[in-house]
């Protein structure tokens, strides 16, 4: 039994309860909106939809660790803007990966 469903013709808009202080109307789901919205609203709408996936810490079926030390999060955020494919531009990162 599938727990998710495909979008129907009636699901052409995104409705966000928590972003409603920024966005008064529904946003199109499958195309870019005509007008821009505040960055806070875009964040809130995406964050609200991602919350529907559940909590990875409570996933007992995958048998993997989904928690990591806060220092790992800091390292990931400090290097998230690097293009690791461009090894000539980031030689220290390439060398660290090779080790």
From TrEMBL:
Query: Which family is it part of?
Result: Belongs to the group II decarboxylase family.
InterPro entries, per the entry: Glutamate_decarboxylase, PyrdxlP-dep_de-COase, PyrdxlP-dep_Trfase
PANTHER family attached here? GLUTAMATE DECARBOXYLASE, GLUTAMATE DECARBOXYLASE 1
For this UniProt record, give its keywords in alphabetical order, as a comma-separated list.
Calmodulin-binding, Pyridoxal phosphate
Q: Which domain of life is it from?
A: Eukaryota
Cellular compartments per GO CC: cytosol
Where would one find the signal peptide in this protein? Answer: none
Cofactor or coenzyme needed:
pyridoxal 5'-phosphate
Taxonomically, what lineage is the organism? Eukaryota, Viridiplantae, Streptophyta, Embryophyta, Tracheophyta
Annotated organism of origin: Malus baccata
Gene Ontology MF, one:
glutamate decarboxylase activity
Protein name per its UniProtKB record: Glutamate decarboxylase
One of its GO biological process terms is: L-glutamate catabolic process
């Amino acid at each position: 039994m599938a727990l998710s469903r495909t979008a129907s013709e009636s699901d052409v808009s995104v409705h966000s309860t928590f972003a409603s202080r920024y966005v008064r109307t529904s946003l199109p789901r499958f195309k870019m909106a005509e007008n821009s919205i505040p960055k806070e609203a875009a964040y809130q709408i995406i964050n609200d939809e991602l919350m529907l996936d559940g909590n990875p810490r409570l996933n007992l079926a995958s048998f993997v660790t989904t928690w990591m030390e806060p220092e790992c999060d800091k390292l990931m955020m400090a290097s998230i803007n690097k293009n690791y494919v461009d090894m000539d531009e980031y030689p220290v990162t390439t060398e660290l990966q090779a080790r």
